[in-house]
Amino acid sequence: MDRPLEGSGAGGAAHGGSGAAGRSSLRVLTLNIWNRHDPWEARLALIRKGLRELDADVVGLQEVMSYEGRSLVDDIAEGLGYEIAFGAAHDLGGGVLFGNAVLSRWPIGRSQAFPLPTGETDEKRSILLAELASPRGVIPFFVTHLNWKFHHGVVREAQVAAVAEIVMREAPMAGLPPIVVGDFNAQPEAAEIRFMKGLQSLNQKSVYFADTFGQTGKGPGFTFDPVRNPFAAITNEYPRRIDYIFVRGPDEQGRGKPLASRVVFEELEDGVAASDHYGVLSEISI
Fold first, then answer.
1. Which residues have a Cβ under 8 Å from the Cβ of 252 and sit 6 or more positions away?
2. Which residues contact 105 (CB under 8 A, 6 or more apart)?
3. Which tens digit of pLDDT belongs to each residue from 117-151?
4. Which pLDDT tens digit goes with each residue over 171-212?
5. Which one of 80, 115, 205, 254 is CB 3.0 to 4.6 Å from 14, fit for a cystine?
6. pLDDT at 13
7. Of 266, 267, 286, 270, residue with least CA distance to 278
8. How far apart are the C-alpha atoms of 184 and 145, rounded to whole Å?
């Protein structure tokens, strides 16, 4: 790995890596930004600071709000050199959209949002595809956010089944391994996550994606932590790992192998966290 994930992860300017074209690995980040909850300006500064230090090649963000063609991701990415894409999941009314976003070091050739099953709930979810024109070829990158309630496991099962179907259709096996990131709102032992990892079938179908943190991370990897994060504490829930980076790999050429992974955006500054979630940063062979 050219930029090891151990330690602070500080890497200087977000896109100063002159060796990007020659690297054999990809640095991927996912974070649920908790939409625009206060104190937004302080949180925005922490998110931007983290992005500069972590030096990710591609970032998937959830709970992104957009109004009249400008989204929170435009504020987050301003001046950092990323290409951006936004995909709506829910129209909140009054011109406000709620969805997912991608930040990419490389040009985004195509982006498209696909709706996911709602299970007759009032939550509307989607998965956003962004095709990244990397020096190694087109990377199919997907970001999603599943239903959040504890008792919506059956809805999330339908959603991951749809995710797998969409990924298989939009990312042919012959290309670079697709990457799927996001807030799955389910713990590693849940049926929906076990399905993603190839540990159980759903509706007589099975798939396999490598859980990057599960394979290369250390410790429990909690990304929603009411014990330590004041913004998560208001829920009175318990710590758990619910944010993931999945990759379909490794393939026969060794592409798509998880190399390292860790939880990020854990720090507090003046009592403020970047979000109610922590993020996940992983290095993947490409």
1. none
2. 15, 20, 56, 57, 58, 81, 82, 83, 134
3. 999 899 999 999 999 999 999 999 999 999 999 99
4. 988 889 999 999 999 999 999 999 999 999 999 999 999 999
5. 80
6. 34
7. 266
8. 6
Q: Which of 137, 177, 179, 129 is nearest to 28 (CA)?
A: 179
**Closest C-alpha among 1, 49, 6 to residue 26:** 1
Q: What tens digit of pLDDT does each residue of 208-236 get?
A: 999 999 999 999 999 999 999 999 999 99
How far is the C-alpha of 124 from the C-alpha of 145, rounded, in Å? Answer: 10
How far is Cα 226 from Cα 236, in angstroms, rounded to an integer?
Answer: 7
Q: Which residue type sits at 177? A: P
CA dist 169 and 155 (Å) reads 21
- Range list of β-strands (E), the chain: 25-32, 58-67, 70-71, 83-93, 96-104, 108-115, 126-134, 137-145, 179-183, 210-211, 243-247, 258-264, 279-285
